[in-house]
Specification:
Elements (H helix, E strand, L loop, with lengths): L8 E2 L3 E4 L6 H9 L16 H13 L8 E6 L5 E11 L4 E8 L8 H15 L5 E7 L3 H9 L3 E12 L2 E11 L16 E4 L5 H18 L10 H12 L3 E8 L2 E13 L8 E11 L8 H16 L4 E3 L6 H9 L14
Parallel strand pairs: 5-6, 12-13
Antiparallel strand pairs: 1-2, 2-3, 3-4, 4-5, 6-8, 7-8, 9-10, 10-11, 11-12
């Protein structure tokens, strides 16, 4: 573990830097004085800016320590300090850090905190050389969990009665990411400009290349079910989909190339003695090129699909996935999907 301390980091929209005493007004006004923001935190709402200054003086006094990590989140477009992100617990023997964060309510829902969290995790893995990074949230605060999932962390489980915050003793949901969970292409912090649109016929070859990536992933994760290779029949099937009026192919384009795709299928299940009629849109396949992951491409595709669902008057969007694909599960949960059915097996 390298004790490099709180160094300034930069992302597409943010500067993460050490706090200065001049930040007290922004901190107090933007988040520390708001009881809605501090509801699930471990420290009380600040009643005056003098308390905020006292906290900042304490943090600033530790910046010379190489094992102290506390960043102010500065929005580039305004220069305002809008939140903080920090290592709240460090276990040197395990090369492990727990991260905590907080941000003003006016800035929620814009993807800012996942952007900051990704940058801090990249720094802690690549510069500090940590092995494991964790984060926890009160189970009654699922929005914080969506931040963790969007940043690429994996949900590990729930610890009952294991936390205490301003609401009292609580159950906590645990997320983590290991150094080994990452690949070099996943270490980007700046979103790529992306265009999401319906596919054209000339896109289909690029889509098939990504479909092979999906197939290879399935073969690796479930070799007893999926056949290796990508045969002509699978390749040609895309052209059948292309001509099917009940199916749509969506692509994401960045840097002049197709970097993601989704296949949408309109499904109607007639009423039967057991179930009501079901009319819905299904995401049959979904993939983003590994070089464009964690750059907002998948989220842009989901927004496009949800807009299509609304325009077409569908009341339901479904997808199915395999249990081994934990990264996809974390993304879909962060995007708002909820599990409503499971398939289970016993293997001999």
């Amino acid at each position: 573990m390298n004790k490099t301390g709180t160094q300034t980091l930069e992302t597409h929209r943010l500067i993460l830097r050490p706090f200065k005493i001049e930040d007290a007004e922004d901190m107090f006004n933007n988040w520390a004085s708001d009881p809605e923001v501090t509801r699930f935190l471990t420290w009380p709402t600040h009643s005056s800016v003098d308390i905020t200054r006292m906290v900042l003086n304490d943090w600033i006094s530790h910046y010379e320590d190489g094992d102290f990590f506390q960043w102010a989140i500065v929005l580039k477009e305004t220069g305002s300090v809008i939140g903080n992100i920090a290592v709240v617990h460090l276990i040197e023997q395990l090369e492990e850090a727990e991260i905590g964060y907080c941000m003003g309510k006016a800035f929620w829902g814009r993807g800012i905190m996942p952007e900051a969290l990704r940058a801090v995790m990249d720094y802690l893995f690549d510069t500090v050389s940590l092995h494991r990074i964790t984060a926890h949230h009160d189970v009654n605060n699922p929005k914080s969990g969506r931040v963790m999932a969007k940043a690429g962390m994996l949900k590990e489980g729930i610890q009952r009665g294991a936390g205490r915050n301003n609401q009292g003793i609580c159950d906590v949901c645990c997320y983590a990411l290991l150094q080994s969970d990452r690949t070099p292409v996943e270490r980007h912090t700046s979103p790529a400009p992306v265009i999401v649109r319906f596919a054209r016929e000339e896109d289909l070859e690029a889509v098939n290349k990504l479909r092979k990536v999906v197939n290879d992933l399935h073969v690796k994760g479930k070799p007893d079910v999926f056949k290796p290779g990508f045969c002509d029949e699978l390749r040609d099937y895309l052209f059948t989909i292309w001509k099917d009026p009940d199916q749509e192919i969506v692509v994401a384009e960045a840097e002049g190339k197709v970097c993601g795709f989704a296949i949408l299928h309109h499904i109607n299940r007639p009423e039967n003695p057991f179930m009501f009629e079901r009319d819905f849109l299904d995401i049959d396949e979904f993939c983003v090129d590994e070089h464009f992951r964690r750059q907002g491409v998948a989220s842009a595709m989901i927004r496009f699909i949800l807009d299509f669902v609304k325009k077409k008057g569908f009341k339901r969007l479904e997808l199915n996935m395999w249990e081994f694909n934990r990264g996809a599960l974390a993304f879909y949960e962060a995007a708002g999907f909820k599990t409503f059915r499971r398939y289970m097996e016993i293997m001999e």
